[in-house]
Amino acid sequence: MVKEQQTTEVVVVGAGPAGTTCAYQLRKAGIECLLLDQAEFPRDKICGGGLTTKAYTLLAKLMPDFKYDYQSIKKVKVKMGNTVFEFEPADELRIVSRKVFDYGLLQQYLQAGGQFKQGSFARYDVQPDGRILVTLKSGQQILCNYLVGADGANSRVRNQMKGTTAKILCLEQYVEKSKDAVEIELSSEKFNKGYYYLFPGVDYDVVGFGDQHTTIEGFRQILAERGIKETKLRGAYIPVEEVVSDLDNIILIGDAGGFPNKVSYEGLYYAIATGMNAAKAISEGAPFSKVNHKIFKKKRREQTLANLFYSRLGLAVIKLLARYPKVIKLGFDKAISPDK
Questions:
Q1: Cα three-residue angle 263-13-140, rounded to 5 degrees
Q2: Burial of 334 (0-12, 13-18, 19+ CB in 10 A)
Q3: How many CB atoms lie within 10 A of CB 223?
Q4: For residues 289 and 277, is the Cβ–Cβ distance under 8 A?
Q5: CA nearest to 33, candidates 177, 158, 146
Q6: CATH for the stretch 5-336
């Protein structure tokens, strides 16, 4: 039974960094927008929460008044078998609590006069005039000109359009705060196109692992090998292939669009960047594929690099380069620095 119907220019499904960035930019451009999420904020979201230089630089450009708490990290430790090397990035890494960070982004949008509704997306239907009718699980319907899917790796918007797409499972848990460096462990023998990591946070550290064949039993073994007591394991999927929408007025961004980095699986920069590009495409009446073409191009380069990086040859080269920390540091700094 349909309870009510409303109209708006844009519906953005998902109030994470991608959706909130997009909605905020639309609001600043004077475009009517409804931001929708099934969760009640602030909501917990376990995540490494790493903001690279290019991520927090872009965020500061888009939301100059947004202030947030973070743990400043100036050391990275990488382990491969018995080989360990450390270096200091050119710029700090910022580790945030996603519960607090995402809520802060949402507040920025609301303070700009944005509309937010707690509700679960059920489906969309393209109308004869090209507009999109969004139906919520409650039965409410919203008629809009644009629909933006920003609802994460398990995006219902993407799944309706494209079905299931490739993704890996990441398992994580909180641990007592004790480290001052980001720790990463790679291994061609133990990990299949993935890695173990530790991110030191503001109030706690996060340990996690993800590869093509992640299992709870495998993660428990990894924790036991490192003397880490198991607490509450949580899982999250990370998409590994970007998805292009079939329609110009349905746009997929962030994890919903499959945009996390194909080598590091870092997603916050691309969430913010694709959110910005989606808003620009809507405000200019241009196809998202055109506005976002540089990122699609970067994705193709990343896929080539990922294929090499996670091969036995690639990991052997990295292990060899560990003898030359300046080379590793140079590559890392280039990967996280703002695009020129």
A1: 155
A2: exposed
A3: 20
A4: no
A5: 146
A6: 3.50.50.60
Q: Where are the alpha helices (DSSP H) in the chain?
A: 17-28, 53-62, 98-111, 156-162, 216-225, 268-284, 288-291, 293-309, 312-321, 325-336
- Distance (Å, rounded) from C-alpha 121 to C-alpha 283? 24
Residue count (the chain): 340
Tell me the mean pLDDT per 10 residues along the chain, length 340.
76 97 97 96 87 96 96 91 86 94 97 95 97 96 98 95 88 92 84 87 92 90 92 89 92 95 91 98 97 94 89 83 81 80
Euclidean distance between CA atoms 256 and 238, whole angstroms: 10
- Please tell me the distance from the alpha carbon of residue 200 to that of residue 104, in angstroms, as a whole number: 20
In whole angstroms, what is the distance from residue 308 CA to residue 332 CA? 16
Number of neighbours of residue 123 by Cβ within 10 angstroms: 12
Residue 16: closest CA among 202, 227, 290, 274 = 274
Please answer whether residues 251 and 261 qualify as being in contact, where contact means their C-beta atoms are separated by less than 8 angstroms.
Answer: no
Q: pTM for the complete prediction?
A: 0.93
Helix (H) or strand (E) holding 210: strand 205-211
Task: Report yes or no: 175 and 205 within 8 Å, Cβ to Cβ.
Answer: yes
- Axis crossing angle, helix 17-28 with helix 268-284, rounded to the nearest 10: 30
